[in-house]
Amino acid sequence: MSLRNFFCPDSVAVIGAAREEEKVGHIILDNIINSGYKGKLFPVNPNADEIHGIKCYHSVLDIPGDLDLTIIAIPVQFVLQVLEECSKKNTKWSIIISAGFKETGIEGTKRERQLIEKAKEYGIRILGPNCLGIIDTECPINATFTPNIPPMGKIGFISQSGALGTAILDWAKTNKIGFSKFVSLGNKADISENDLFDDWENEKDTEVITAYLEGVKYGREFMKISSRVSKKKPIIVIKSGNTDAGARAVSSHTGTLAGSARAYEAAFKQAGIIRANTIRDLFNYATAFSYQPLPKGKKVAIITNAGGPGIMATDECEKNDILLASLEKETIDGLKEFLPEAANFYNPIDILGDALADRYKKTLEVVIKDNNVDAIVMLLTPQAMTQPYRTARAIVEVIGKSGKDIPVAASFMGGAEVKKAVRFLAEKNIPNFDIPEEAIDTLKVMMEYTDWKSKKEFPIESFDVDKESVERVFGRCRAEGRLELGEMEAREILKAYGIRVPEAELASDIDEAKEIAKRIGYPLVLKIVSPNILHKTDVGGVRIGIGSEKELEEDYDEILFHVRKYIPDANIRGILVQEFIKDKKETIIGMSEDPQFGPMIMFGLGGIYVEALKDVSFRIAPLSRQMAGEMIEEIKTTKLLKGTRGEDPSDIESIIEIILKVSQLVIDFPEIIEMDINPLFVKKQGEGSIAGDARIRIGG
Amino acid sequence: MSLRNFFCPDSVAVIGAAREEEKVGHIILDNIINSGYKGKLFPVNPNADEIHGIKCYHSVLDIPGDLDLTIIAIPVQFVLQVLEECSKKNTKWSIIISAGFKETGIEGTKRERQLIEKAKEYGIRILGPNCLGIIDTECPINATFTPNIPPMGKIGFISQSGALGTAILDWAKTNKIGFSKFVSLGNKADISENDLFDDWENEKDTEVITAYLEGVKYGREFMKISSRVSKKKPIIVIKSGNTDAGARAVSSHTGTLAGSARAYEAAFKQAGIIRANTIRDLFNYATAFSYQPLPKGKKVAIITNAGGPGIMATDECEKNDILLASLEKETIDGLKEFLPEAANFYNPIDILGDALADRYKKTLEVVIKDNNVDAIVMLLTPQAMTQPYRTARAIVEVIGKSGKDIPVAASFMGGAEVKKAVRFLAEKNIPNFDIPEEAIDTLKVMMEYTDWKSKKEFPIESFDVDKESVERVFGRCRAEGRLELGEMEAREILKAYGIRVPEAELASDIDEAKEIAKRIGYPLVLKIVSPNILHKTDVGGVRIGIGSEKELEEDYDEILFHVRKYIPDANIRGILVQEFIKDKKETIIGMSEDPQFGPMIMFGLGGIYVEALKDVSFRIAPLSRQMAGEMIEEIKTTKLLKGTRGEDPSDIESIIEIILKVSQLVIDFPEIIEMDINPLFVKKQGEGSIAGDARIRIGG
């Protein structure tokens, strides 16, 4: 259902429109009137006949005709009753300003649940409760209790914090940042960011979607909608609350390293959401996106009247892997025709401290034609002869005449001396940044978005697997009341999904072990097998690199000795005699269930790297082959897999394949809560990877 | 020599004080007059008798009496002659505004050298040439050609870019940021940041020293002065130009990883300089330092009228290892007495959206008394009932009455609605930050500065070493024309400095090798020894883990075979038969000569870690024991040395000792340009470290 009528209803009732000026209902009524709303407006107040000369209704039911939108700003105990009355007026939308719901505790949460049940029954969609309302600058309507309506513009802004919303509206109004729509989500009992992203995908007034979120609702739905919408319009989000709430009960490496911050990071990346760290970044990005076309490549030209800021911008390019465009010969020749000899004709182009507007103009005229240039940054410091305002006019004129579709950002630095110029630039849709670094950072974000838009979607592959075997194993374990699966069962499961495991057999005594050893061949690995022991190494239950029968005998005994010492009551099923994998790198692939986004896959280099460096990458399952490849590229230690110092490169393709199989496994079996393949031995290119050990935890 | 008279001279001549209003000399004269300068002012112009009703002198020589300061703004070709005339008037200081010196190329560089020689002869100190001039707000005098004189304040600002200086002065004036002094360094032919830091150490008007630098002059002098001054006053620097200029000829790992950006990073750290990444950071930090006392610890209390900004601030604390103070029981009890029930009494303290100034006041009164709180952040968003200005007044009042000496920072967010409040806060020395994150970041920098101030200086230790042996080795190598020293010589040098090397002897044939092997014992390492081969591994010249005489024979032959294949003409001195070090971690200690700061020591984990992760730390020699320890703490892989997963911790003390010995070595022998101890084998705690291999390069 389109939200068009929600943002710009034909008729609105303000329920709780008090006569007292400081009351929320009164302020909202005032704001709607003052914003120039052109539809039908009905104040509702049981005790008033008229407010501001507008007829006031004692009850919603007294209003003639149907009501598109009702705004409810009354004490919490009356909300349900009023909502029922709204339903009788065929209301489609209700903004519930009233507080006293989930945010107040258990009683409030119950009340909120009841509210939503009723609203569903009535077919009314709810914004809030406990919210600030909405603004639509196009309609126009300001249905909030803040008087600060920003100018019309292309940025849609959603705030999960009403208070932050007011600060931003105040700031946007003061700085003349144009908004299309503003929505305060409040408790998000019904309408959430998902509905708004979905609606704004094709909403013509909104070209850039921005949001302050403390959490998302329905994580997988959020990802699905966002990744579709973000291909059409940039979605820029501040996600606060990155501290993981409380300790979680986890038993795997993956679980320890996962956590909500990592999940959000992965989900946002996969959904093409642009993450802003601060409000400043959010609006730097949003204005640039709403003002300027996207850069087609990563090459920037910098034009400056001062060396210092030029260096700062260059440093920032270097830091962000943005290239300084190497200018075409015609460009340099063109610049030499009019720039003074002392100027720098190469990028960053320094047109010197005495540059007047005309020199900026001529320079931009030449540079904007250069085919090596994907974006231009204009730097200016107000020196003795500088003409900031005229320069701003010149820039706008050149861009207009050029017919070129490349982004231009400015950083006119200073205070009063550049103020008029900066305002003019903003009016003409040239974003100005207080400092050159922020211009470069913003261009970088735009470049990444260009990449995202052009990124092809790859299908999720499906391997031919043996689901029945897995079901059997899980069934057996559940029957035995075991939810933590050790190596033996994990081996079965991995094999069923086509993941190679080392050759191995269970020995119940030393003679059996010797027999198995002969079949497999030395060197070998011995491991204790017991349902009571998950951390085998910690109890001395593992021996590696056993080279001979003599060593086998010694180590076999030693394992039993240690294990019995540590865990006297352990139910020992035997000792696993296992092939020793040579010439390998150790990696880890794991999975952890995120409460918001579902199964999340982890990859990293094994052992010490994971533990000391925490150098791992995460993605939400299911994964495409390309995404699995990105996971491997993303870790800092990825070079170790590619072969340094003449070493053979590792079989990265086989890691990708196993990541995909794990992804398929955890999607097929949602009962899997955590799993670690640790170590996953990766052999050299062409020789595959082998799951050295694994553990799986399933839900009850 | 104190610069008091330079900043506030009794008499000033403006040479080149033109009648034309747009000329630099004229503007400077105007600016001096308009700034309210109270000393004697003499315009000099050969063609004018009077400017602005002030008598104009045709020559400096016509001016009666001596001249403290002359400002020279005339065409470059006349500068030398005028300087000579100045010397006759006993001028102590000259600001040379004129351009046309080093910045223009070879001719100009010559001219600048000549200028400085003459100035020395005359005993005149020079600022510039090619600079903007100086401002002293206390004197007051504005001897620049920018009209923007900032308000009086405690921040001294030095700019190596005149253009950036103008932008910042404009910005400071607009935002009412108080400066004590402003200096444009220009070409830094004489007066540099070193003179200014040195002078401002005891200059009462300047409490915070800030600078924009593109490079420093006399690196070691810079470090010496800065580390002394920074113990008294914060020095905040933006260093731009972090891209290493061109490729350097380096042959060691250390050399490859070093470079000017790393050297500046190390030098600044050792000198206690606070690094700002952007101008925004620079002035965020500077205003906070100049407005507020230093925090005594790292525990912050946050008071907010909105959840969102509170979360943002909390996230930023977490990111920066800043603790949220856990409030004392009395504090929480005190808050409960007047805060509404729905408020959050714990940190971050949420006093709710309807908080008026009075609630902020009462909250701050209680919290400021809490002994667990080292710093307070006041957050405010302008909601319907919020009183920003009254709240600002209340905050100032409470702080004044409290008698407490703890820093308070504010982030009143928004635009027009908080403007008056923010201005009032600034007037009362409470820094306000546009976004909460910047308040936290700034407090963090202040906390680090508190640490720096209280940090004890540790002496540079001196080990009992055998310098003569090293001299002998260097002498021998130089005589043979070899400046790249291989393993054999490096072993001698390390031994002379008490650094352990593996037991080893040179074998000239296989029989000798067998004899040596018997003495040392298996397992062994074999290494080719040839003055022509520095990268032994690359030519197959190294074999490790040789377990028996049979393996020795095979490997001995194989080394010779490979080396002869790769480098047929190699002059082979023999094969080194060396003890194999077991149970060790590989690290690397190196040194590289920085053109600016001299010998720089590097530490990192060896092999793959250095190459793939570039996880290394640097310090400028000489080092104290504490600094060496910090180098080890600083790398991300430091955990691997401390023992993870029940592993034994490595002998970190022995690494420190070797770092100190290398530091002493490279200070004793400045001819050492580069060196690598790679690998340095580190054994477990108490068992020491052994230099597995080493290379040294000395200057010609």
Précis, in short:
Chain A is α/β, with parallel strands linked by helices and about 700 residues long. Among the domains of chain A are: about 295-455, Rossmann fold, CATH 3.40.50.261; about 465-485 and about 495-580, ATP-grasp fold, A domain (Dna Ligase, domain 1, 2-Layer Sandwich), CATH 3.30.1490; about 585-700, D-amino Acid Aminotransferase, Chain A, domain 1 (2-Layer Sandwich). Helices cover about 40% and strands about 20% of the residues of chain A.
Can you walk through the features of this model?
2 copies of one chain form a homodimer. Chain A is 39% helix and 21% strand. Chain A is an alpha/beta fold and 700 residues long. Among the domains of chain A are: 295-454, 3-Layer(aba) Sandwich (Rossmann fold); 467-484 and 495-579, 2-Layer Sandwich (Dna Ligase, domain 1), CATH 3.30.1490.20; 585-698, D-amino Acid Aminotransferase, Chain A, domain 1. In chain A, the strands form 6 sheets. The first copy, chain A, has a 7-stranded mixed beta sheet with strand order 9-8-11-10-12-13-14, with helices on both faces. In chain A, strands 20, 25, 26, 27, 28, 29 and 30 form a 7-stranded antiparallel beta sheet that branches. In chain A, β8 and β9 (141-144) form a beta hairpin. The two termini of chain A are 39 Å apart. In chain A, 53% of the residues are buried. The mean pLDDT of chain A is 92.
